[in-house]
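hi support,

uploading two proteins for the ticket. first:
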Amino acid sequence: MSKGRILFVSQEIMPFSDESELSSMGRYLPAKIQEMGREIRVFMPKFCSVSERKHQLHEVIRLSGMNLIVNNCDHQLIIKVGSIPTARMQVYFIDNDEYFAGRKDARLADGTLSADSDEQLLFFGRGTLEAVRKLAWQPHLINFCGWFTSMIPFYLRRINKENAFFSGTKMVITLMDDGFKGHIGGDLERKMKTDGATAKDLRLYGDTTYLGLMKSAITYSQGIIIGSKNANPELVAFAKENKRNVLDYVEDRDEFYARINKFYDTIIGKIEN
């Protein structure tokens, strides 16, 4: 039986991001899963805090160049790639001059979000899946981590309506200690509607606080990993009340990664060669 293909989408990844619990998970979990014999791809947003010179990033011309429509305007999708040699792991970056250039990360200095944070999330979610489709690499499972990845479930469903590329792909969300203050900016409901959102989508994404976005992502996911002992307790309770497939946090990293690997098998099921 095949080990399966896992797509990791993370808000932060060391060493491209500052060290944190979230960026450490983004760095070490994919590497460990790859060591366990699975095929992986890894994506994250390209904020300006990621040094292109230091990390020797370069644009992937064959993946870049398409325009994505967000809020009825065209925005160029730029894909860059860097590597972590010690892990033998490549990381793909979703970039755009308007949404990511000059912005250190997804939050402002006071912990709140920028006025166009809704469009950033939409662009990143759709851009990631479009790039994977252009790679012609079909994942059996997507493990997304961090609130900035929370639109992945919406776009996976939307893209599947137009193209069966992701047919059968399962989704797992990793819950971390990564909350933000207030609501995401803009008018998410209207912009989702112009991008093919159903009435159910709009109901789920009506609350644009951190808790609201993450509960929506949990609802659309087949599995939930509690990735931090400080994960929001309301989200942990919501996940356990609404899903059977929940993996609890384990302090020992090696044991935790091994359990996550087995958890993937539970979610994916049998894979035909």
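and the second one:
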Amino acid sequence: MTPDDKPTQTTLSPQDVFSSSELDQLCQRIIASGILGRSKHYSAMLEYLVKCSAQNRQPKEIDLATDVLGKDGDFDVSVDSSVRVYVHQLRKKLSAYYEQNELDAAYRLVIPKGSYSLAAIATTPVVKPASFSFTKFGVSNSLLLAVVVLLAANLLYMSSRQGEESGAPSQVAATHPVWDTVLGDDQPILLVMGDYYIFGELNANGNVARMVREFNVNSRSDLEDLQFSDIEHTENYLDLDLSYMPEGSAYALAKIVPLLQNGGKSVNITMMSDLTSADIRSNHIVYIGYISALDKLTSMTFAGSGLRIGRSYDELFNTKTAEYFTSDAGLPEEGDPFRDYGMFATFPASIDTQVVLIAGMRDAGLMHTAQAVSNTLALDELVVSIDSDTDEALASFEAVYEVFGVDRLNFDANLVYSNLLDAKQIWASPQASRLD
């Protein structure tokens, strides 16, 4: 049986299939495989569920909270979702174990959905073609601020209408602890779109010969600095009062605006080329765009990070493992698969304000990241991957998604990196010092 085979399942009690010693041995094999990761909670939870199964006992959510996760007796399951998050992830890890180990096992250990107990399933392989969910890219790539504002207004209107009719996913995601740092107070939110500032280069006749994008020219003042530093070519540069954004920004905007609106906050919108330090100090910042368009947020983003920009903006370098995350989504040949990366980060920008970063190296990474952080299960996966016992961790962490696609279609993605940020380094960064 291969991981693509889809089994028919008959759910049984583990006691009907395994003896107590066999169940204990299976538990230890799963732990020893390393599939549960470094967190002590997963192995402790699996051993606890095995023990309950041997005692023919059905544990409750509060039992797992106090006996496994070490929560206090006043633990409120209606407020704290940590047990549900860990059970959800353990369910996935058990499935992953059997995709790589004991492929011919007659019975598999599972946690049925909606349950906090172990069960066994008898498996019979039925081979079916692999299926994929995908999102097609198809939005104009020349979005100016006026278009963005109109789109945002329409999204706000549509999301409010949808929210009246049913509990939209954005409503649920807006209540997640990850978003509480920007939605849980009265501070206004400034939605910053990562645009590329464009200026003109003139020919000998004084006409615009070509439009130019320079990574160090991100605003009118930057262009003026360039002109002063290159007096010989000053007259060759012309401010076109023009900027553009990647097409993936429209999709990301459609995911994030309803979520922010459901948080009940005041939301304004601006372009990165117009963002000021005063804006950062007086607003929570939610950034949407390419990593290469971070501009004023770049130093803060990577000050306390375990990542840094690689040989280009299409590459991130993991400083701990020396691993490169490199996108090849820039110019894929027709029909060729490509790999892209998305980045999510959240960190304090000042005493009162927070930055939430939703970015990608290219469109596929940006679009998937926006989709992930507006989905409750994906947000739960982020929280678990951090593996921290402190709520403060949710205010300063980063994550990277690896995204696979073909012909500009996004087929699959994995969370490949998560890390707590060093908030002290963020405050010590040059950008942060300028905000004081």
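thanks. also noticed: The CA atoms of residues 43 and 209 lie 64 Å apart.
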